[in-house]
């Protein structure tokens, strides 16, 4: 799945009770209207009534029903208490509605006390997504006393439930004539769990460098959409921003400049920031193609392409298509030894995830064509290879074997399978070649239960040829939300899969995210309420 900015803009919209105030130039917007406080992604089970409760924003707190620290939950409590629950603007005044029961706190319980051990752990891919991130959330009133409870099996489920709770709260202060802000929620019961355990976003920090602060904005946005994997395509042909302590030349010669780098400490800060939000970080080091970044410091790692043929210069490029060298050289042990040392550092000191993405896409086979390249021709003869795909297989299988020996589980783009390389069943394949759809097309992607049994999940991918810190957040959000809901929410039938029905709920989610301070772009004409024009305060 891939993100793209192009989408069909429609401009037939109607007045909506809730966050979005579209202007209706021609006729009513098709599809379902959603009351304020409608969650994104849709929960597995969500029932609510018209009875309301209110909040005293000065005293309301999320609290744990267990003692001791629990970093991810404490972090979430701090963040949500600080403004995600009640983004106040205008004159900053708000109070509870005196006519309604007041919810004093949300009590968070972990049903399995053992799970408190997870508070210090790095999140893992779950083989049982239905309990791993499951939670039950209730807002109820008994004898005019309102209570809110959240029960989860794991820390990670609790994080998902806190996010949903925050989405149930809505303010009145966008309505004409309202002097004072009150915050409300409907009486609600939610039982929720994700459909897939891997719900990712791929970002690329090589085509353009992304400063560290952008990662936290992206991770926040992922948390609002219950995404749980950041796939970090960290290096590529264009640059090598990762600082390796083993091979410092890689970033010294391969980064755009000496500031456009990720130090070991910065990488660990990002991984820890992700962990606190219940998000795993999978690093990608793409080989044997896309390796100019490696080649800037270590040109002898790359195959001379003989762009002029066997009698020409080994390093002759065939510009503008291809460079003089661009794939790793699969014929020499030096390449494999270097990669073993490099990946040993990654396995021991950089990644905290047990999965590693090996790329293996878009290898420029012209460079390895034996009719052009005498080095490859010689290698094929020595090994008894008759077909070029055997050269790719030679590299791929040795590389995968090495990475597995370091205790990592490899992920590859689909390309080796496309060129008939035989892979073990435990290699995870990421399909990517159907791409470029607008959000509403992504939203309608259907995965059958039969297919689901072979699928870990999915990702939205944004390569950064044309994005950098100025536009990446608004390019990702809210489009990634469509993919986020498809991966979280169970297939509940045609109507829930219909983008027209989801559109205004997504726009509500977009306005909610905007109020939390992320520059998310609109999907409809209209405005997010008085907030857009009055004394905007970023509460982050
Ligand atoms: C919440 O209650 C209001 C009326 O008080 C109603 O209009 C709205 O539809 C309800 N929302 C949900 C999600 O049930
Ligand atoms: C915390 O959980 C215990 C055991 O389930 C329960 O007895 C107690 O009432 C809970 N406390 C709060 C504040 O909800
Ligand atoms: C809140 O409202 C009161 C009464 O309208 C006003 O006196 C006060 O200045 C307001 N507070 C802020 C922070 O604007
Ligand atoms: C290259 O490595 C292979 C596999 O480890 C080994 O069999 C071979 O002897 C090595 N070749 C050289 C020239 O060191
Ligand atoms: C990992 O880090 C430790 C401590 O800095 C260092 O001693 C070790 O050599 C590193 N391992 C690798 C493979 O770079
Ligand atoms: C892979 O194998 C299929 C079936 O044998 C064949 O049709 C296809 O051309 C092969 N692809 C490549 C890239 O060799």
UniProtKB/TrEMBL annotation:
Top-level taxon of the source organism: Eukaryota
Keyword annotations of the record = Glycoprotein, Glycosidase, Hydrolase, Signal
Chain segments annotated as coiled-coil in the UniProt record: none
Reaction(s) the record says it catalyses: Hydrolysis of terminal non-reducing N-acetyl-D-hexosamine residues in N-acetyl-beta-D-hexosaminides
| Record has Hydrolase as a keyword | yes
Q: Which residues form the Glycoside hydrolase family 20 catalytic domain?
A: 196-435, 447-489
Residue span(s) of domain Beta-hexosaminidase eukaryotic type N-terminal? 39-168
What EC number(s) is this enzyme filed under? 3.2.1.52
InterPro entries with a match to the protein in the record: Beta_hexosaminidase_sua/sub, GH, Glyco_hydro_20_cat, Hex-like_dom2, HEX_eukaryotic_N
Q: For this UniProt entry, which residues form the secretion signal?
A: 1-18
Q: What protein family does this chain belong to?
A: Belongs to the glycosyl hydrolase 20 family.
Provide the protein name.
Beta-hexosaminidase
């Amino acid at each position: 799945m891939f993100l793209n900015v192009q989408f069909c803009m429609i401009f037939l919209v109607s007045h909506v009770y809730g966050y979005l105030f579209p202007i209706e130039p021609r006729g009513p917007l098709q599809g379902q209207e959603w009351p304020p406080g409608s969650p994104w992604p849709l929960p597995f089970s969500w029932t609510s009534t018209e009875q309301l409760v209110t909040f005293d924003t000065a005293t309301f707190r999320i609290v744990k029903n267990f003692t001791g620290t629990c970093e991810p939950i404490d972090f979430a409590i701090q963040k949500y208490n600080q403004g995600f629950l009640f983004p106040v603007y205008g004159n900053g005044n708000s109070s509870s509605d005196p006519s309604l029961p007041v919810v004093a706190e949300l009590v968070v319980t972990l049903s399995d006390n053992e799970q408190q051990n997870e508070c210090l752990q790095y999140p893992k891919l779950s083989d049982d997504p239905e309990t791993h991130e499951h939670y039950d959330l209730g807002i109820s009133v008994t004898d005019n006393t309102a209570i809110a409870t959240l029960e989860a099996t794991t820390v990670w489920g609790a994080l998902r439930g806190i996010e949903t709770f925050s989405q149930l709260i809505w303010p009145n202060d966008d309505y004409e004539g309202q002097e004072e802000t009150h915050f409300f929620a409907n009486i609600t019961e939610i039982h929720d769990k994700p459909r897939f355990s891997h719900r990712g976003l791929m970002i690329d920090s090589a085509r353009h460098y992304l400063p560290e602060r952008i990662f936290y904005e992206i991770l926040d946005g992922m948390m609002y959409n219950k995404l749980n994997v950041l796939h970090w395509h960290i290096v590529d042909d264009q640059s090598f921003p990762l600082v390796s302590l083993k091979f410092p030349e890689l970033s010294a010669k391969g980064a755009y400049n000496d500031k456009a780098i990720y130090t070991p400490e910065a990488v660990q800060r990002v991984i820890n920031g992700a962990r606190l939000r219940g998000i795993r970080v999978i690093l990608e080091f793409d080989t044997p193609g896309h390796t100019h970044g490696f080649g800037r410091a270590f040109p002898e790692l790359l195959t001379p392409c003989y762009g002029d043929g066997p009698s020409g210069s080994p390093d002759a490029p065939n510009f503008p298509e291809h460079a003089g060298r661009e794939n790793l050289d699969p014929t020499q042990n030096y390449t494999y030894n270097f990669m073993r040392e490099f990946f040993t550092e990654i396995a021991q000191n950089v990644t905290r995830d047990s999965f590693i993405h090996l790329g293996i896409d878009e290898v420029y086979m012209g460079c390895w064509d034996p009719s052009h390249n005498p080095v490859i021709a010689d290698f094929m003869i020595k090994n008894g290879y008759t077909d070029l795909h055997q050269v790719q297989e030679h590299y791929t299988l040795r590389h995968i074997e090495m990475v597995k020996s370091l205790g990592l589980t490899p992920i590859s783009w689909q390309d080796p399978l496309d060129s008939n390389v035989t892979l073990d069943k435990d290699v995870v394949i990421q399909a990517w070649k159907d791409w470029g759809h607008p959000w509403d097309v992504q939203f309608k992607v259907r995965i059958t239960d039969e297919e689901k049994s072979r699928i870990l999940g999915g990702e939205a991918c944004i390569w950064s040829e044309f994005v950098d810190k100025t536009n990446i957040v608004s390019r990702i959000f809210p489009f990634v939300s469509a993919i986020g809901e498809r991966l979280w929410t169970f297939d509940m039938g045609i109507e829930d899969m219909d983008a027209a029905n989801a559109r205004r709920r997504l726009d509500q989610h977009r306005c909610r995210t905007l109020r939390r301070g992320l520059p998310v772009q609109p999907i409809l004409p209209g405005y997010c309420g008085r907030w857009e024009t009055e004394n905007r305060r970023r509460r982050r």
